[in-house]
Amino acid sequence: MDYRVRGLNDLNEIVEFFERSPLRSKKRSDFETFAEIIQMMNDDLHLTKPGLDRIARLASTMNEGVTRSYLESSETVRRTPDS
Asked: pLDDT tens-digit profile of 8-60?
């Protein structure tokens, strides 16, 4: 089965699903961080450099062992209106 995410509305549905059916593993902490990031996006905080920086820092704490370079990404910097 596939579930295609095509925007913030779909991400909100995922958050709602896992709030109704909580994870019981160590991934629960990652989900809580994910849900916080989605709420920040709902509040348009991703459209500011400080908000985007905070989202990047939160995201970097998820999925231990995965290396990320969100803060240095040219794509991220290019899309930030306050940079």
From this structure: 999 999 999 999 999 988 899 999 999 999 999 999 999 999 999 999 999 99
- The rounded distance, in Å, linking the Cα atoms of 67 and 71 is 12
Q: Determine the residue type at 6.
A: R
Residue with tokens 């549905």: 13
Angle ∠(46,50,52) on CA atoms, nearest 5: 30
- Alpha helix ranges (H) inside 2-67: 8-20, 27-42, 49-60
C-alpha 54/C-alpha 8 separation (Å) is 18
28: containing domain: 8-79
Q: Which pLDDT belongs to residue 63?
A: 83
Contact 41, 8 (CB under 8 A): yes
Asked if residue 21 belongs to a domain, the reply is yes
